[in-house]
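Issue 218. Parser rejects a valid record. Input:
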Amino acid sequence: MPGSHRSPAAHRAHLDALNISRLTPEQALGSLHTGPGGLAEAEAARRLTEYGSNTVEEMAGKPGWQRLLEQFGHFFAIILWIAAGLALLAYVLQGDPAMATLGWAIIGVIVINGVFSFWQEYKAEQALAALRQLLPLEVKVRRGGVVYPLPASQLVPGDIVYLEGGDAVPADCRVLSAFGLRVNNAILTGESAPQSRHAEASHNADPVLGGNCLFAGTSVVAGSAEVVVYATGMRTRFGHVAHLTQSTADTVSPLTRELARLSRWVALFATALGLVFLSIGHAIGLPWSDNLLFAIGIIVANVPEGLLPTVTLSLALATQRMAKRRALVRHLPAVETLSAATVIVSDKTGTLTENRMRVLDVYTLGRAHPADTPGLPAVLKQIAGQCHNLLASGNGWIGDPMEQALAEFAGALPQPPSLRRGELPFDSERKRMAVLQQQPDGLHLYVKGAAECVLPLCGMLLMPDGEQPLDAAGRDRLLAEVDRFAERGLRVLALAYRQPAALPLDESNLVFAGLAGIEDPPRPEVAGAIATCRQAGIRVVLCTGDHAVTASAIARQIGLLQGDGKVVTGDELERLSDTQLQLRLDQPDLLFARVTPEQKQRIVTVLQQKGEVVAVTGDGVNDAPALKSADIGIAMGQRGSDVAKAAADIVLLDDNFATIVDAIEEGRAVYANIRKFLTYILTSNIPELVPYLAFVLLRVPLPLTIIQILAVDLGTDMLPALALGAEPPAPAVMNTPPRSRQERLLTPGLLLRAYGFLGLFEAAAALFAFFTVMYAAGWHYGGTVPASTPFYLAATTACLVAIVLGQIVNLFLCRDSTVSAFRLPLRNRWLLGGLAFEAALILSIVYTSFGQRVFGTAPLAAADWLIALPVLLAMLLADELRKAWQRHRPGAAADTRRGMG
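Output the parser choked on:
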C-alpha cells in the first residue's frame, strides 16, 4: 500500500523490512550486531530491557464501567426496576413510607446483584487468562551457540530462531537459510495461498512480496528456516494491524442462547402474572396500596435474581477443574458444548499412542532385522540420520518424535558432517521428504516417506551383492513386507537414495534402501477411555495419515475396532460421494487411514450433516480447518502447532485422548449442575408466591413481606445455589447417551418438580408456620392485625424461617434427580460452606436488631423453629419415594437424561 496511507509507526516498520530485505544474510546479521551463534545471554537480557517484551498490546474491549452498567439492563434487572418504580410511584402518590422503603430496597438488590455478577464475570476472565499462561508460545532459539526452547515473549532483535511447518512466526524476521519454506501471509495480504520464502537479497519495493522476510502473526505452512529477528512487539507489522486479529465477535454458545431465552421467559411470565393479579385485586376491591404491594410481590417472587451469577461461577469453576485434569479451555462456551458431543474424530500418534517412538525392526538387503543388528548398510543409517528437520540441543534432538527415532537409530554419523544443498519438505499430499546433502564424494539425495509414495520412484533395490533392478513383482513383495510390519502395529517408513545426485533436486530413479518399522505403543489409559466413550454413547472415529494396517492394529489393541471393523483409506474416501460417505459413517466400527487434512475436514462436515455434535483433535497447521469446522476443536498442547492451538477451543496439555473423556465428563457435569440449581432456585418461587395469593384470595394478613422474599433470593439462597453449581461430576454421568442439541434447560419435568411438587411442600410448610404462630397468639380468621404487632412480626418470621429450612432440605434433594440424598457423598466443600452461610444469615436476620429492623422480623422461640418440621419431613419422604419410583420404572434412564426427573 502507498506510504502516504500508513501511520508514521507503520511506515517505519515498512522501511525496516525494506532495508533488511535488501541485505545478504551475512549483512543482515551484521546490521543487527549478532552472528551465526546468536546473541550472548547477557546481551539478550540487555536488549529485552531496552526493547521490552515481544508481545502485542491487545485491543481494549468494553471498558469496565460499561460492562458493569450492562449488569443492570438484562431482563431480570428490568423487571426489578419496574417493581421499584411502582413502589416509589405509590410513595409519591400516597405518601406511604413503607412503599419508599420497599422501592429503595429493590434498587439495593439490583445494585448488589449487578455488582456481584460483574465481579463473577471478572473473576472468570481472570481465571481463563491465568490458565492460558500455562501454554506460552515457545520458539527454538540459538543463543551462545546453543539451541533451546524459549518463550516467544522473550525474543529480542538479533535472536536466531528456527521455524518449521505449523509454527506461528513470533516476530518480524529476516530469512538466513530456508528449505522448501512456504508461509501464509493472509493476515497481511488477505491472500491465503502459501508463498515461498528464500534467503537471497531482494530489491522488491514491498518486503511482504520480496521473499526473504517473515512477519509476526503469519504462519509457516511447510518447510523449515533459520531466521534472525529484527523487530519485536509493537514494532512489528502485526503490532500495527493487531485489530485485524482481535475483532472477532464472541461466540454465542447454545447455553448462552438458552439462558437468554430462559431470562425472557421468566421475566415476561413474572410481569404477566403480576398484571393478572393486579387486575384480580382491583376486581375484588382490594385497596390501591394493598393491590400494588400484591403485584410487586408477585413480580419479585418470580424473578430468580441469583440465576445469572450462579451460571457464570459454574462455568468458571468448570474451566479450573478441567485445567487440573490437563484440559485448557480457550473459549468458555466449549465447556457446555462438550456435554452434547456425540462423536470424537481422533488422530492416532501422540493422542492414542505415547508418541515415544523407536525403530524396532528394519527390512533391508532382502530380509527383516532387529534395529540393533550390527552391520546394517551405512546408507540406510545415513538416510535416517540426515533426512530430517531436527535441531541438535544439549539434551538431544528437538523436533518430530518420528524423526528423533530415526536419528537415534542412525547414531553418530561420520565426520565431517554433510551440508544440505536442497530440500523438498514433507507434506500431506507428497507424504515424503527429500534432501540433497553435500558429502565428501559429491551430492547425495536421501528420501524417506510412505512406502506407497516412495516405491514408485525406485528403479533399483539394495541387496547384499549390490544394487539390483526393482520390478513390479519386487515392489509387491516389498509392500507385503510393509503389511507385515503394520500388522504388528508398527509405523512403516520407506528409505531410498540416489548417488551421485545433482541440482535441481529430482526424486526419480531412486535406489530402495529399506523399511524402518517404528514402534509407538498405545497409551495404557486409552483403552479404558474408549470403553467409557462406548458406555456414554459417544462414538470414536480414528482418522490418521498412517498405514491402514498399522492403524487397524493399534485400533484393535485399544478396543476401538471390534469384530468386522471397516478401514477406509484416503483413496477410497476420494471416490465416495457425500451421500455414500454418510451411509458409510453409519457403520459402528470404522476408521480412516492414509487421509489428508482436507479429507479429515470433509469427514467432520459430513458427520455434522448427519446431526452429530463433533469434537475433533488435531496438531498440524493443516488441521486448523477441521478444528474450526468442528463443534469442539481440540489441539495438542505438547506437539501441536501454534496455528492448530489458535484454531482450537480446547488444548490438551498432555496430548492424551483420555483427557478428552475427562473434559466431556466435566462438560456434562456443568449442564447437570445448571439444572440442579435451576430446580433449587425455582422451587422457592412457590412459597414466596403462595403467601400473596392467600393475602388476596383469602383476605388474611400478608404472611411474607417483599423484603423477606429478597432475603431468600439474594441472601440465604445464593451461596447454596452456587454450591450446587460446583458439584463434581456424578459417578453415573458417563453412563447415559449425550443430550440432544434441541434439549431445553427448562423442561416440563423440571418445572413440574420445582413448581408442582417441591414448591408446594415448601409453601405448605411456610403457611402452616405462619398460621400456627398467629392462632397461638389469639388471632382469628377475618381479624386485622397492624404490621407492627409483635406476634404478626413473629408469624412472618416463622414463615420466612420455614422457607429457609425448606430450602436446606431442598438443597440435598436437588443434588441428584434420581439418587437418594442419603447415598450421595459430601465431596463438595462449597455445599457445607453454603449451608453454614445460610444458617448464619437467617440467625442474624431473626436475632439481631439490625436484621429485625431491615427485614421486619422478630425473635422466635426454639419451638417455633420446629413448627414446619413435619411438613418438611413429608417433603423429604415424598421426594425419596419419587426418586425410588424414578429409578425403577421403565425408561427411567432416558427420562432422567432429558431432565424429566
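Fixed in the parser; the record now loads. The two ends are 63 Å apart (CA to CA).
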